[in-house]
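Think of the structure tokens as a kind of shorthand, similar to the way a musician reads notation: each symbol stands for something richer, in this case the local conformation of the backbone. In the example below we present two proteins back to back. Begin with the first one, reading the sequence and then the tokens, and try to describe in your own words what changes along the chain.
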Amino acid sequence: MRDVLTAYPSLVRSATLVAATYRGRVVLSLATSFFPLLTMAVWLTVVAEGGPPAGWTTGDFLSYYAAATLLWNLAGDRVVWQWDADMRSGDLSARLLRPVHPFHQYAASDLGHRLVFLTVLAPALALAALLVPGLGYSADPVRLVAVAAALVLAYALSLLMASTFALIGFWSTQTSNVWLLWWGLGSFASGWVAPLALMPDWLRTAALVLPFRTAMGFPVELLMGRLDARQTAYGFAVGLGWLAAFALLYLIGWRYGVRRYQAVAG
């Protein structure tokens, strides 16, 4: 583990340089990174025509989806496409020969790309929080520490969940389709389509025990001050539980899946 941690700075720096080299891709990624703001525009239209839902104001929707934009760019789903492409091309073979486990190679690569995007996105969101009326968050130090921890948990769970699903590629060529189906269903339980407080009771109850909320809705709700101490502790407990579950699933999937791997290039 010490050797792995020592290798991370170099791997992340290399991925950052690669991401910065392909400027067109960076611009395209930044353009798509504001996709949650389109959902916000829909909700603001609804509020303008029919009035805000109980307990929500226009400023709440602005604050929610501005934070959701940041969480949208902390999703580790990029590794799914990398794993899938490398398995199909045979490039995974070269990664297997390196002294660092492929999981850490993909994780460091994803982290490096995220850092490039966030260095541009985060200041833009911070500026918007200062200039846009009604958009603001509590500066309570304790809450900010909890939000930072929730962000780390959200990224770690998202990355590990995506890596676990990527291992389906050892058995099937439908990895990306299975992942899209998983997140297509999960988008409703994550708070991405709409804040969970506005969802039906049955969906909100299910979301509280599923992993999707940890990856987005939970940090946003925490940042907005909508969770008390008990709800915060519960959110962390669910997230850590799913993190442990996917870590176990990944280890099992890797152990049996890598034995089936056959490189086919060309």
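Once you have a description of the first chain, move to the second and do the same.
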Amino acid sequence: MRRMTETAPAEPLEPAPTPAPGAEQYLALDLANSAPALPGGHTLDLLSSPADANRWLAERGLAPADAGLREMCAAQLRSLREQIRALIASRVEGQPAPAGAVAAVNEAMTKAPATALLHWDATRGLHRAAAHPTTQILEHALAALAADAADLLTGPDADRLTACGSPPCTRYLLRHGRRQWCSTRCGDRVRAARAYARRTGREPQG
């Protein structure tokens, strides 16, 4: 079940936002945005459970729908999300990339074996075998997402990365022209805040 958290009095929940610009091109950006902040202090985590994580990967062609992910697998996916977010944030803010995040992404890229490896045991002797199927599925998915993040952060689109300019949104996007928000909903919120500021003479928040 997708988990909602709240830090403020309950308000009617908005549906999950549509993918931010660039998220369909870069699955790593989609992963980074998979726990969007919603108005009212709510957060929607699309990877909150093994079933949700499995669904997210399956919808993007990174795992079969019946992969049977466990909580440890979902936790690894959430961890990679945070490392990729840290790298994107440092790029957007013009700060040095966190060493731990770089190491985590590199580890994910190199961890998945390209083929069945050589093993030995007393019963079968030398033989080739894949890792545990579910583990191998996850490792290949993490490797693909990590490589996609590396491509995004080192390619020409890296200069277009920006944070959504509509609080409380925490999503990232690829900027098109002067657009600084990730969705029509966030753009409407920005315009409403500016209109309110003009009427009241107050500076808009964020």
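Compare your description with these statements about the second chain. The first strand starts at residue 3 and ends at 6.
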